[in-house]
Write a structure and sequence with these properties.
By secondary structure, this protein is of the alpha+beta class. The chain has one domain. It is built from 1 helix and 4 strands; from the N terminus they run αββββ. A two-stranded antiparallel sheet has the order 1-2. A two-stranded antiparallel sheet has the order 3-4. Strand 3 and strand 4 form a beta hairpin.
Length: 81
């Protein structure tokens, strides 16, 4: 789940705050495209710095997971002061 969410966030230009790779290679994503989470350990987090809210939709079916991210068509990154 976390690797799929990481790739969806990354492909949509959302800021990655914290991400850790698995300690070993995983077969379901290419190297460098994985993200791990653990209770009280490594975590994956991101921050929406776009000018509009995002909607995250996920669907699991037949052993597959899809995550889609939606936002306004006229999105701009926020200016940092």
């Amino acid at each position: 789940m976390s690797s799929t969410l990481f790739n969806a966030v990354d492909m949509n230009g959302i800021t990655i705050v914290e991400r850790y790779s698995h300690s070993r290679r995983v077969p379901y994503v290419p190297p460098g495209k994985d993200a791990t989470v653990s209770w009280w350990g490594p975590d994956f987090s991101f921050k929406n710095e776009l000018s509009h809210p995002i909607l995250i939709r996920s669907k699991a079916k037949d052993g597959r997971l899809a995550i889609r991210i939606f936002t306004s068509e006229s999105v701009h990154t926020r200016q940092k002061n």
